[in-house]
Structures
1.
Amino acid sequence: MKAIVGLLCGIVFGIGLAMSGMTDTAKVLGFLDVSGNWIPDLAFVMGGAVLVTLIAFRFVPLMKRPLLNPRFTLPTVRVIDGRLLGGAAIFGIGWGVYGYCPGPALSALSYMDSKTGMFVIAMLVGMALANKVAPG
Amino acid sequence: MLAYTTPFIGGLLIGTTAVALLFLLGRIAGIAGIVWGAISAQPDNAWRWMFIVGLVVGPVLYHLLAQVPNPQASTLPWWQAVAGGLLVGFGTKLGGGCTSGHGVCGIGRLSPRSLVATMTFMATGIVTVYVIRHLLAGYLP
């Protein structure tokens, strides 16, 4: 049952990414290119997504437990430290270098472009490296 | 305004999935975290792998059913794909999240950490594109 939930959620998430233009590196880079020919699409994607979570996330955690699991698994770290800032900064640079963040990169695998495959493999290597350098 | 309806609806779908995942499994829909959980063989992992499969299937369905052509393949060189991938993987693992985990879910949870992370990666993303497109234009292979 949980696997089916995972699959269906992944499919809808993937549809959302494709529909919103996040799987199109030209659109993503156009959004980040504020001083050039700015493409505002992605602001609407973020706006739409955050609108839903901002409202619904007020209520969902009030449940005693999620429907199919014994408890909620939520992030517990609360510090804003060098690790968070450095990680986010490095991630943003990589995002700007090619135009994919993790979800759209995986979704774009469906377009069968070999460079997307290289991006995803490099991304997995990058995660493993970070885990070696700074585990946890 | 109509031009932005599709991205907005796409965003609503992404947000709705995040809510469904929290409601059903009690999990945060952060893709970097899901991917790391999957490849580092966390317990109770089937949903993660299936989510990743879904991420790839979703766009196929969308482009087929909505009859929207696939986006143009990137014209950037392969080394930029590799460099971008390495940095994205390293940064999201180190910083504990990506656009979905910090941006969509974290901000939805009103987490100051995620808000700071989101502003940070947006800022460095913007600076990076500026440097590559406007400062280094013509100097890169």
2.
Amino acid sequence: MRRVARALLGSQYALMLEYRAEIALWALSGLLPFIMLALWRQAPAGAHLGLGSGGLDRYFLSAYLVRQFSVVWVVFAFEEDALLGRLSPYLLQPLHPLWRYLAAHLAEQLTRLPFAAAIAALFFVLNPGAFWLPSPGGLFLAWLATLGAFAISFLLQSLIAALCFWSEKASALERLLFVPYLFLSGLLAPLAAFPPGVRAMAQWTPFPWLINFPARLLAGLPVDAAAGFGAQLAWIALLLPAVLLLWRAGVRRYTAMGA
Amino acid sequence: MRRYLLTLRRFWGTAIAGQLEYQLNVLIELLAAAANLAGSLFILSLFFRQSGSLGGWSWQQALVVQGVYTLLDGVATTWLRPNLGAIVSHVREGTLDFVLLKPIDSQFWLSLRTLSPAGLSELLLGLGLVVWAAPRAGGSAGPLQLALALLTLLTGVVILYALWFLLAATSIWFVKTWNATEVLRAALTAGRFPIAAYPPALRLLFTVVLPVAFLTTVPAEAILGRATAPWLGAALLMAVLSFAASRAFWRFALRHYTSASS
């Protein structure tokens, strides 16, 4: 088992290193939180969020970093593999294909690390006042929460990817999932800015636990850690069996492309 | 000229006939566009919870900017993405050779080959929002105003096209520039909000380096009847210059084209 994991991760990392330039561009294309930060800092509404001085800067930088390490693209990779017929040999191997995608994501995150660090460094050079070092305990919790966020996104997308067995255009469905993610996750506005009714409703969806919760942990802002981790675990417990069941049902009716 | 018009009709006829195969997708796109607009309006409303203005723009005026952005996004999805996104794969797979051999301008072929109805819903939603919000924000619909609004929208589209084409054309050297256009797309989302809402340094950046201001804020100003001569002149100049640059750059890039695997 360990040998398989090492071989998968090693080969995927080597593959991702080939695409360094591409991954750097992806890291750049996530700069939306910084645009939003500029707006929030300028607007009077930004002062009413209860984040304290510098809290806004820390929140949006953290949101950027959390997003960088919880980006998931299973649907797109899977759709391409299914359309090009690469899926059939993967299914024959004595290894669940999702493990391969998981290894690719982890390897890509490792490749992303230097670029994300460079952007954070640049952010601090431009805003020396915002500099902070999270406490080791806080950093550990934030890392756990980011991992939880990655797991939930991965499972959500795998659920949609499994629908590829029934429809050839699952990426269109992914768009429908991305819209609530974008607006409810806290990437564009911290959840503290939402009206109380919307905030209460959003908390019953998986989205705020994907950005808002880990970002607040990383930024050292007050947050109910127990409730956050509880919600993340609940979503993982709900999604994991659903993905496995749907996948099994899908493989059973899979006839390979063109059959 | 007639030959080009005739070719264009053939191009778009076949493209739409091909896309009609996927009717369910159109429905999904409509749903996604509506949800996207609702989400953007929600985020915009957050800025108005504490005060009545965002960078000096009222809620209804900011809605006009949002509408223009949605409209331009629709143009990008319908026209720019399917065409200019394909340049990268033409270069990678060597099919650009076939395009260059055709007895027709290659930039014309690459820019107008296809249309995707996926962005039509965004076009309609954006137009609807502008038409709804403009009179409420104090815009009046005189003939001069309408003409200026159309002119600035046109310059916005031309600038967007030229920027996108310039980036896509760099694939002649770098092959994989698909992500570069993604970076452009991400940066252009700044156009969802009036330029005046940004800090001064970013305002300068979004006007001179990455002309987001000319894409949404200037057309919105014209729609609201607040267009000033210097801004109109700058928008026109920017559009002409960027289009000329895209043309010159394409000629330059083709001189460096060596076809795939050679």
